[in-house]
């Protein structure tokens, strides 16, 4: 079995394969982000950090916003420029970036990209970078896995998950195993890829930070953000998924909970004191 080199990822290194594995023809993630921005009156300048293939950045651009998409993957950025034009695409590491001071009215961070900040220092780096990039009163909109879901819940951990899809006539299969690394507060993933074209199996490993709602609030407050919304559903990857006009079920009061496996955040950068 081949292993991916450090930092390599079969899907993110092959953006067309990524979009085939995770299709979003209705652009639910981009529409959800735009609905959040509109609901809280965000200005037009938007940074989509961890933009991936550019699908959501393109949707926000088509909604009339001046969008910059940022990602650490050169392959993803090259794909985005060709297949999802309109935004400006730049290379940047979300754990610490500098794209100008007061340059944006909103920062969007979708699909658990924020959780690639594995350490407290990395999370501080992300939030400090967002604070620098945003104007006073700017918004941070994020969507991610919910660390609180794994408190006493094991259904995603009990057995490997197998998925299958066909791309360019080749059947690709993945077997994914998740485990909680409590000491590091990470959800670690091992995924083995096979294909029916005779290529050898490939194993890749990755991880997400497990953040809990109150912990996230504390980090945000320390960096000058006021939480406007923090809720588990509905969102782009909930069941059922978000739809136009759907109201969030806030964790801040009844009947909202943080039981779902996704967490959705809207926060505003406070004015300097």
How are the SSEs ordered, and which strands pair?
Elements: E1 2-3, H1 15-21, H2 28-39, E2 45-49, H3 55-62, E3 66-71, H4 74-83, E4 88-91, E5 104-109, H5 120-133, E6 134-145, E7 161-167, E8 170-181, E9 186-195, E10 202-209, H6 213-222, E11 225-231, E12 262-269
Parallel strand pairs: 1-10, 2-3, 2-5, 3-4, 5-6
Antiparallel strand pairs: 6-12, 7-8, 8-9, 9-10, 11-12
Helix pairs in contact: 2-3
GO molecular function, one term: methyltransferase activity
Organism: Streptomyces zhihengii
InterPro entries: Methyltransf_25, SAM-dependent_MTases_sf
Please tell me about this protein's structure:
The chain is α/β, with parallel strands linked by helices and 273 residues long. It folds into two domains: 15-147 and 211-269, Vaccinia Virus protein VP39 (Rossmann fold), CATH 3.40.50; 150-209, Pantoate--beta-alanine Ligase, Chain: A,domain 2 (2-Layer Sandwich). It is 22% helix and 32% strand. It has helices at 15-21, 28-39, 55-62, 74-83, 120-133, 213-222; strands at residues 2-3, 45-49, 66-71, 88-91, 104-109, 134-145, 161-167, 170-181, 186-195, 202-209, 225-231, 262-269. The N and C termini lie far apart (56 Å). The model is unreliable at 3-7 and 251-255 (pLDDT under 50). GO terms for molecular function: methyltransferase activity.
């Amino acid at each position: 079995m081949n292993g991916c080199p450090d930092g390599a990822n079969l899907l993110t290194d092959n953006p067309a394969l990524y979009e085939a594995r995770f299709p979003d023809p209705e652009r639910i993630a981009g529409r959800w982000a735009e609905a959040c921005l509109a609901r809280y009156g965000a200005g037009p300048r938007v940074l989509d950090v961890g933009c991936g293939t550019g699908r959501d950045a393109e949707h926000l651009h088509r909604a009339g916003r001046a969008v910059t998409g940022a990602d650490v993957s050169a392959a993803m950025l090259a794909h985005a420029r060709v297949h999802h034009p309109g935004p400006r695409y730049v290379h940047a590491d979300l754990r610490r970036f500098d794209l100008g001071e007061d340059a944006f009215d909103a920062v969007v961070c979708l699909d658990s990209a924020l959780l690639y900040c594995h350490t407290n220092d990395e999370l501080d780096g992300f939030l400090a970078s967002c604070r620098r990039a945003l104007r006073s009163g700017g918004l941070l909109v994020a969507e991610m896995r919910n660390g609180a879901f794994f408190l006493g819940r094991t259904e995603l951990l009990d057995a490997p998950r197998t998925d299958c899809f066909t791309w360019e006539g080749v059947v690709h299969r993945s077997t994914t195993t998740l485990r909680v690394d409590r000491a590091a507060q990470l959800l670690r993933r091992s995924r083995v890829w096979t294909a029916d074209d005779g290529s050898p199996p490939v194993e890749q490993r990755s991880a997400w930070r497990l953040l809990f709602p109150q912990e996230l609030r504390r980090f945000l407050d320390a960096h000058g953000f006021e939480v406007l919304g923090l809720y588990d559903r509905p969102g782009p990857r909930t069941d059922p998924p978000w739809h136009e006009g759907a109201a969030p079920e806030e964790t801040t009061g009844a009947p909202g909970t943080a039981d779902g496996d996704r967490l959705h955040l809207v926060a505003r950068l406070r004015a300097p004191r």
